[in-house]
């Protein structure tokens, strides 16, 4: 063998080895990026439940202040469909990677600005107005984050493990929730005066470091071969949203309804947090640690659910988890309002960490595989973000539905359970895609 042929062989082997590592690298990049970006997004939810009613809405009575703070949380979800259209367009036009870098900068900058925002005592009504505008920017960013990361990872994965690798995007989201809660636990233990004056700002100001780390991790990831292929063949849609609504309108509608399952997440992370602490005297650290336990459990169970979905299909795992949530939301409320710490921890671990983890792990591949590559970013972004509107306003709706007395949570549980059942029914109408080659996904409509 000549030196030239030997060198060529080594170069070829090196290229193949690098190619083999791309799915793992894509999953890691999506995990870290989502973790750090959703750290920013989740600290707002915690602050809205515990801090903002007293800091930015102090000029009204406490009940109204709580509703306004939860409304500001939900407003972030109003911006998400708009962001999905805009960022989905560019994600399908210029590539996944460029848009994902933009979402990081937008999220990090808006979160840092919240941490620097003067409160209502300092600038009056301007404070909640500016807070709401910054929350809108967070929503715009979040709209493109998960869908872009899902598309990036899915398109770098082999056919046999797409659900597994793509699930790490949502595991990153869980890790972001853990990180946000761990930062808030010591902050929430500060004396009330210090907490409301400067302590609550710490998690938001830390977003600067979050932004730097996430950007450095994500910027080195190459564009997906699937997108490069349609770009080289000049098959990129000029207006992806038009092509999407023309050819995939039923799949977009299906994703919207399936995404109602996210009401479980905001019910547990935001509404139940404020409800248990204000109405039943549960200590703030107890509820925050329960959330950490649920998310840590999900970090373990979500990859396992995804592995199962790669073997038996997306639909059985997704539907089973969704219906499980519909049933378990009732004992969840019974336990978190009991005041018993082990019971509260068990409720969070079972509902959030095990059962909800099933659809949460599967939807990144389940939704994305409904669309072909040229509209995948737009399809998953628009579908999920319209569906997530219900999740965004779940804390507000729940606060409006909740009754008096120890069983006042029952209307809230019924509302969430109904959303779960509707989500499962929509998923049942989808086609199974776990055995379909990635090049053929969505092609039945082409």
Automatic annotation (TrEMBL):
**Family annotation (SUPFAM superfamilies):** MFS general substrate transporter (SSF103473)
Q: Name one GO molecular function term.
A: transmembrane transporter activity
Segments spanning the bilayer are: 41-60, 67-87, 99-117, 163-186, 198-217, 252-275, 287-308, 317-337, 343-363, 375-397, 409-428
Which GO cellular component does the record give, naming just one? plasma membrane
| One family name in Pfam for this protein | Sugar_tr
- Alphabetical list of PROSITE patterns matching this protein: MFS
Q: Where in the cell is it found?
A: Cell membrane
Q: Where is the Major facilitator superfamily (MFS) profile domain?
A: 26-435
Please give, as recorded in its UniProt entry, the membrane topology of this protein: Multi-pass membrane protein
Broad class of the protein's primary localization: membrane
Q: Does the keyword Cell membrane apply?
A: yes
Gene3D superfamilies per UniProt: MFS general substrate transporter like domains
Q: Which InterPro entries match?
A: MFS (IPR011701), MFS_dom (IPR020846), MFS_sugar_transport-like (IPR005828), MFS_trans_sf (IPR036259)
Q: Which UniProt keywords apply?
A: Cell membrane, Membrane, Transmembrane, Transmembrane helix, Transport
What's the protein here called?
Answer: MFS transporter
């Amino acid at each position: 063998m000549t030196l030239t042929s030997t060198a060529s062989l080594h170069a070829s082997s090196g290229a193949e080895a690098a190619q083999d590592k791309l799915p793992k690298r894509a999953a890691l990049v999506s995990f870290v990026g989502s973790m750090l970006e959703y750290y920013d997004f989740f600290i707002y939810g915690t602050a809205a439940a515990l801090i903002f009613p007293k800091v930015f809405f102090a000029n009204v009575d406490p009940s109204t202040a709580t509703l306004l703070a939860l409304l500001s949380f939900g407003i972030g979800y109003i911006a998400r469909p708009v962001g999905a259209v805009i960022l989905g367009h560019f994600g399908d036009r210029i590539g996944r990677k460029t848009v994902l870098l933009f979402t990081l900068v937008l999220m990090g900058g808006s979160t840092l600005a919240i941490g620097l925002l003067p409160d209502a005592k300092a600038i009056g009504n301007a404070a909640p107005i500016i807070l709401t505008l910054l929350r809108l920017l967070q929503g715009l960013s979040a709209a493109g984050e998960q869908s872009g990361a899902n598309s990036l990872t899915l398109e770098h994965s082999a056919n046999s493990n797409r659900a597994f690798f793509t699930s790490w995007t949502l595991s990153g989201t869980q890790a972001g929730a853990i990180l946000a809660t761990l930062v808030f636990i010591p902050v929430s233990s500060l004396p009330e005066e210090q907490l409301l004056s400067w302590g609550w700002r710490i998690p938001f100001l830390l977003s600067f470091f979050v932004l730097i780390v996430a950007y450095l991790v994500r910027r080195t990831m190459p564009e997906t071969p699937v997108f490069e292929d349609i770009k080289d063949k000049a098959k990129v849609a000029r207006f992806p949203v038009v092509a999407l609504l023309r050819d995939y309108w039923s799949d977009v509608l299906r994703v919207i309804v399936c995404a109602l399952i996210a009401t479980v997440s905001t019910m547990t992370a935001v509404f139940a947090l404020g409800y248990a602490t204000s109405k039943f005297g549960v200590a703030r650290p107890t509820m925050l640690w329960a959330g950490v336990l649920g998310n840590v459990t999900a970090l373990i169970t979500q990859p396992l659910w995804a592995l199962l979905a790669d073997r038996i299909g997306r639909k059985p795992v997704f539907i089973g988890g969704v219906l499980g949530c519909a049933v378990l939301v009732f004992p969840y409320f019974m336990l978190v309002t009991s005041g018993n710490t082990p019971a509260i921890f068990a409720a969070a671990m079972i509902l959030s960490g095990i059962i909800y983890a099933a659809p949460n792990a599967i939807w990144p591949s389940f939704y994305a595989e409904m669309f072909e590559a040229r509209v995948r970013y737009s399809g998953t972004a628009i579908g999920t973000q319209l569906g997530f509107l219900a999740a965004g306003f779940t804390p507000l709706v729940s606060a409006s539905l909740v009754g008096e007395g120890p069983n006042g949570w029952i209307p809230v549980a019924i509302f969430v359970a109904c959303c779960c059942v509707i989500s499962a029914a929509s998923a049942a109408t989808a086609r199974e895609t776990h055995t379909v080659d990635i090049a053929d996904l969505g092609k039945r409509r082409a």
